[in-house]
Specification:
Length: about 475
């Protein structure tokens, strides 16, 4: 889909969502206590369905995040910390009027989710126990779906109740092949949760169990869940590459393409690109090429061996989609300082702020934008974009050397800030779109590279 059409579709979707929920959001925000510890108003007790209470906590926190961190508005990073006390109090008031014994069965999961947000685990367990009793007579596939939903409730609570989620997974896995689809979804949830938290202990076991469950699915249900199976496989492949198991990552990518493509031919291109991505990860990084460098007084060549490098493929035109990534970059810079090289790679586009510019003026304005406006005090290499006229008269944009070397990151950036991590040995270790959801993975990878670097320096000093 062309970029402009995709952006227009996104805008229309946002307007639709705002039109549907805007009134209730405004009501909730107006009622929300602005500071931790403040007493929430009693009007929350007027909510008539538990679903509104369950959605109250993330809604209030999102509005607070918009005020505190405006550069991450498009994203709500996975929260591992409890809700603020005033938000918890608001949810408690909201659910006070409901009774576990009398509430309709269809509302029990919402009520349990609200109790967890209110830090009332005992009542949440009681609600889910009553729901389980109602489900006991259902056929295995239907019961399994409801158990998978319970896993979601526990997994995405704040903080996540991982022990409770694992106990439900044990029951779900015991249902065997008839529950294969629900098991894929539930273990997929845990895999996604583990990827956001970058938890080594969780990613591989849950991903492998999810893949095994998918293999037990037959007929149309396997086709329907091909995307979910591929997502789990992607997470496991990323985990392999993170731990320098590059051959395992590449073998899994090939297996994923041959397994998933027949199930969902529409995914064939993405699967082929993912296989190329895993072939690219672990290979030596090529030197960055620039016609003009900014903030590089020593004319250093990047990436430099001996320390990790974060390469950002940037454009001055990318605002809302890239701001969350720039916020991640600033946090990484504050944490690692001069132990991490951050380098920008960009090119000319023929315009700046909707005005035509010559190449020199545009490059200087881009430097001002990144250095002064975005506060990214990093080297930036710029090249002038050139074009080729085909025989049929169509003008084609020539690829820059950096786009050829690192363009695979664009394939998985999804309109976000494209990044590449290069380790201290000069190998490509990770690439894609830099978002707050991926911050933990990038942060931990850089930390691991630095730890290995420190160990190597200690060994050299000892000899």
């Amino acid at each position: 889909m062309p970029f402009n059409l995709l952006r227009q579709s996104a805008v229309l979707f946002v307007l639709l969502v705002v039109g549907v929920v805007g009134e209730s959001v405004a009501q909730d925000v107006a009622q929300a206590a602005p500071q931790s510890g403040a007493t929430p108003p009693a009007s929350y007790a007027n909510y008539t369905v538990p679903a509104r209470c369950a959605r109250l906590a993330p809604r209030l926190e999102h509005q607070r995040e918009r005020a505190l961190r405006p550069d991450t508005i498009p994203y709500v990073p996975f929260g591992r910390n409890p809700y603020a006390p005033d938000i918890v109090d608001a949810v408690r008031q909201c659910v006070a009027k409901f009774s576990i014994e009398t509430i309709p069965e269809r509302d029990l999961l919402w009520l349990a989710e609200a109790y967890l947000a209110a830090n009332d685990d005992a009542r949440a367990t009681a609600a889910l126990r009553r729901a389980s009793a109602v489900w006991a007579h259902l056929p295995i596939p239907q019961r399994a779906w409801r158990l998978a939903t319970v896993v979601d409730v526990y997994a995405f609570a704040r903080p996540a109740r991982l022990h409770a989620a694992d106990s439900i997974l044990t029951i779900l896995d015991a249902l065997g092949a008839p529950a294969a689809m629900a098991r894929l979804m539930a273990h997929g949830t845990m895999t996604r949760l583990a990827a956001w938290a970058d938890s080594d202990a969780m990613i591989a076991p849950h991903a492998r169990t999810a893949i095994a469950a998918a293999a037990q699915m037959v007929g149309e249900e396997r086709h329907q869940r091909a995307m979910d199976e591929a997502t789990v496989r992607y997470a496991l492949g990323t985990w392999y590459a993170r731990h320098e198991l590059f051959d395992s990552a590449r073998a899994l990518a090939r297996e994923t393409r041959t397994t998933i493509a027949p199930l969902n031919p529409a995914m064939s291109y993405g699967l082929e690109q993912y296989e190329k991505y895993q072939d690219w990860v672990g290979t030596p990084a090529k030197p960055m090429v620039a016609e003009k460098w900014y903030d590089n007084p020593t004319n250093a060549s990047y990436p430099r061996k001996g320390k990790p490098t974060l390469i950002l493929l940037v454009g001055h035109w990318c605002a809302d989609y890239c701001y969350p990534g720039y916020a991640v970059v600033r946090r990484l810079q504050r944490k690692y300082g001069d132990k991490l090289d951050v380098v920008l790679s960009s090119r000319t586009f023929g315009f700046y702020r909707n005005k035509l510019r010559d190449s020199t003026e545009e490059m200087n304005l881009a430097d001002t934008y990144f250095r002064d406006y975005l506060k990214l005090q990093t080297p930036m290499g710029m090249v002038v974009t050139r074009y080729t006229i085909r025989d049929d008269g169509v003008m084609m944009e020539d690829q820059t050397p950096d786009n050829i070397a690192y363009g695979m990151a664009w394939e998985f950036a999804s309109l976000n800030l494209a990044f590449v991590v290069v380790d201290d040995k000069g190998r490509i270790r990770m690439g894609g779109g830099l978002t707050p959801q991926k911050e933990a993975q990038v942060d931990h990878l850089i930390g691991e590279i630095q730890s290995q670097e420190a160990i190597q320096l200690q060994r050299k000093a000892a000899h």
